[in-house]
Amino acid sequence: TNASVKGALSPVEGGYRVGLDSLNLAQGQLAARLVQPSAITIRGQNLAIDPLALDVGGGRITASGKVEDTLDLDVAIRALPLAIANTIKPDLRLGGTLDGTAKIAGTRNRPDISFGIQGRQLAAAALGQSGLRSISVDARGTSSTSRLNLDATVTSPEGLRATLTGDVPLD
User: How confident is the model at residue 170 (pLDDT cuts 50, 70, 90)?
Assistant: First the structure.
């Protein structure tokens, strides 16, 4: 694994700021890099993320917002190739891409999360063993401290169509 980071750690009132000018990680064919300079500020238990964008294998992961007594955090994934996991465990034979968003709000004691995720041409060794070349997944949901609400559809070129709608207790 090769890693390089350029930035600065500086004190701020009640904590410190980690400024990131560049970040590059590589392991074999897998690479991740910081798309633009960013910063993370930590004050006690509070965290603030300036817009943070990483290019991972040609896909993008972004995050921004605050984790304080009140939560305000946005996370997005765009065209993230699952094949990146094959660098670590090749026998998974993963393929396809993920896109998604998550909004984390509420409070630390009562978080309120909404999310959506789409997977296209998802492939894996285990799917192939089950007779499926690939699947597509569309899911959205919400979560609170006690329940996960989910609405999802899974389809395949071979004619599989499954729908899941419901909620699950989390406590």
Answer: confident
**β-pair partners for 44:** none
**52 is written with which tokens?**
């943070």
Instruction: Report yes or no: 150 and 156 within 8 Å, Cβ to Cβ.
Output: no
DSSP lists the bridge partners of residue 79 as none
Summarised one tens digit per residue, pLDDT across range 23-82 is: 999 887 788 999 999 999 999 999 999 999 999 999 999 999 999 999 999 999 999 999
Count of H-run helices and E-run strands, the chain:
1, 12
Percent of the chain with pLDDT over 90: 84
pTM (2 d.p.): 0.89
User: CA 127 to CA 135: how far, in whole Å?
Assistant: 8
User: Using CB atoms within 10 A of its CB, is residue 156 exposed (0-12), middle (13-18) or buried (19+)?
Assistant: middle
DSSP string, 69-97: SBEEEEEEEEEEEGGGGGGT-GGG--EEE
Q: CA 75 to CA 168: how far, in whole Å?
A: 23
> Residue 88 is encoded by which pair of tokens?
């670590």
